[in-house]
Structures are given as C-alpha cells and as structure tokens.
Task: structure prediction
Amino acid sequence: MGIPGERFPGYGRQGMGQRRGGVRWWVLVLAALYFGWYWFSHQQEAAFTGRTQLIDTSIEEEAQLGLQAWQETLAQSETVRGGPLPEQVSTIARRLVEVGPAVEQYLAKAHGVPATTRWDAFQWEVAVIESPQVNAFCLPGGKIAVYTGIIPVARNEHALAAIMGHEIAHALLRHGAERMAQQKLVQIGQVAASMSIGDMDPRQQQMVMAALGAGARYGLVLPFSRDHETEADRVGLMLAAAACYDPRESIGLWERMGQASGGGAPPEFMSTHPAGATRIQQLQAWMPEALALREASGCPPLP
Ligand SMILES: [Zn+2]
Result:
C-alpha cells in the first residue's frame, strides 16, 4: 500500500499539478483552450471596417454602461447651457449622426464590409462641458461630450466636426465593448499565469508577472488602441465629409492637437494615439475618397 509518489518522487502525488521548473503547465493549457474557445465564439465582423472584433457584450448592455458613465460625468461637471456654443455643437452632432447610415452603406458598397450597425440602440445626446481640458468623447450608446478646452484647438466648425466624427466613430465601431472583452482576457491570462507559477520563488514570480504585464500592454492593448484610433480617424473623416464639412480641415486640426499635447508626447510605440506624422499621412491617403463621398452626398462645392 501507500501512494505511488512515495516510491516515484515527482510522480503521482502531484498528479495534475505536475510541474517543470515550478510551472503548472496544465493551468496554461486550460487557459489557452479557454482563450481559443472564447475567441472563436465571440468574434464578429465589424461594420464600417470589416475587421474581426472580439465582443461579448450586447449593444444594449454596452449602451446601459455608457448611460451610467454619462450620468456620472454630468453629475460631476459644469455644463454650458446658454450662448451659441451648445447650439453649434448640437448641430454638428445632429448632422454627423444623420449621415451615419448613408456612410455605412457607402463603405459597404465600396469596400464590401458588412452594414450591421444597430442604429436603434443609439440614443444620441450632447453636452458641452466647462473645462480647460483639451478633450471630447462619445460614450457607448451615443452620449457625446465636448469640453470647452478643445474649442480653441479646433478653431472652426469643420475641425470640430472632425473631432466629433472621430468620437462618434469610436461608439459606432463598438470600441468600448471590444476593450472590455480584451481586459477580460488579460485578467484571465494574469490569473492563469499567477496560478501556474504559484510554486516559483516569489522574486522570480514577480519578474514573470511584470514581464507578462508589459507583454500584454505593448503586444496587445496598445496596438489594439492604435487600430481603434486609426479606424475612428477614417470613419470620422467620412462622417464629417458626408455631413458637408470640409474634411481637409482635419489635417491642420491634428497638427494643432499634436502641439497642444506638447513636446512631451510619448513615441508612437508607447502611446494609444498614432504619432502626429503617421496620422496626417493616413488622413491624406483617405482624403480623395472623403472628398468624393462629400461630392456624392450633394454638398455645395468647397472653396
Ligand atoms: Zn480616439
């Protein structure tokens, strides 16, 4: 009698917990299998771009989370109610949103991407927030905020339309839901990793976890964020053009944005936003299509 581990050390008693170099490989194998299942069962083709997205939140849940964040933001902020600015910002938002379905149809025809946006799930609302921050956002579900601090950088309605188009595009492309799914995967990965190295020397454990954290950040989270920024730039440009704003104003705008963020901007590799020069090159490459879409939308000719 007795357990096999007594005669064959390293075998039996550890059973499923068999380790090499202090690593429980089976935890990693299970995590990898789960990742594979999660990926294949939650991927979908994104409207406007056709990129494969990982999303496990319904658009209704996403809009609900957006609404909560919106109410919290409004409760903590001072909004501008009088004067021409709120009116101007609302008009830009309305024009951009109105052309949304037509832009989606245009991109579907021109590039063969699916037109699957659930327009009914967006309840658009706009607020101008009194704040020196150079900021604007659109939450999932369509809640748009423009901070007064961004107005001097925008300078004109065309550039402001480029900013708001970019933010609205983030919401239409469901980047928030995609980020949530990603964060979930990163968290599960971290738990699996820390379980699998639970018997390692604590200093080594710390080093492995730090390396994995950096790997997830630079290998997964940041490249995805940069893709999101690029997509939002492109779709935002199309929205602004179809709404009869001058898409060419986006170039000067992103140059001014680069200056507003100061010389302290991190290099592209570390940042969520594409570096200024890359961004402007991309905008220039998309410009002929944006101008053609503008013309096809029946807008008055540009000066
Ligand atoms: Zn963005």
Remarks:
- Residues 52-178+223-295 form one domain.
- The longest strand covers residues 125-129.
